[in-house]
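Q: Could you write out the predicted structure for this multi-component system? I'm mainly interested in how the pieces pack against one another.
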Amino acid sequence: MQQTVYKVIGVVLVLYSLIFGLLTSIPDLPIIEESIRNLFYHVSMWFAMVAMMAGSFAYSIAFLRKENLYTDRRTAALTETGMLFAFLGLFTGMIWARFTWGAWWTNDPKLNGSAITILIYLAYFILRNGIEDERKKARISAVYNIFAFVMMIVFIGILPRMTDSLHPGNGGNPGFNSYDLDNRLRLIFYPAVIGWILIGTWIASLRYRIKNLSIT
Amino acid sequence: MKNLFLTLTAIVPISLLAQSKNFMYSEGKIYVVIAVIAVIFLGLAGYLYRMDRKISALENEK
């Protein structure tokens, strides 16, 4: 086992958030009620996804500087793991939306933005699989990945904040700060985010090592 | 084996708690749900751990 410490910390933090996320007392919110606990589970999927994509963005830039194929494999592994979290975030969000907003899918800018983001990243994999030559594949997909990351920031970070949105913190809705005033949620939410990012790093490292093994 | 071991280490303290007859039955049995979630997550973590070990073994073979 390489670098065991961060893996153990990740498992412990996520386990803590799973257990105490159900046990903690919560603020009294209309409509959302007990489902505010989804903050610990659904929202942390998206934070982990953005962290994975930020990592792959950084490795894409690193690849273009040194053109090391190992760096390209790190990029691909992180993007694949980010996609896993994106789909988990999307499906858990659909369940939450059904019972608080009343529909599985709404035309909320954040929902459509995340759907577009997923399509952009799916195109990354199609692009990769479409090029035979390893170097060419790595170079083109690194450039595309930088573009994809910027588009993700625009679609899930900027545009939802400029129009009306059902999500908190967007379009004049109060952000999580209004829920967090009592700090009870924060105490579970932040460890959950860190824990899932560490678990994601672990999964990505496994995918990276498998890629290295299957090359030669 | 590692997977099984991890799952067992999660189940054993729970079964000890269950014998006290009060804890697991209290609060509308929410602790039963928490125990199930904990076992599932530890099982998945154990699965990742096993995969990690297998990949390490393959790397050492090369």
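A: Regarding packing and overall arrangement: Chain A touches chain B through 19 residues (CB under 8 Å).
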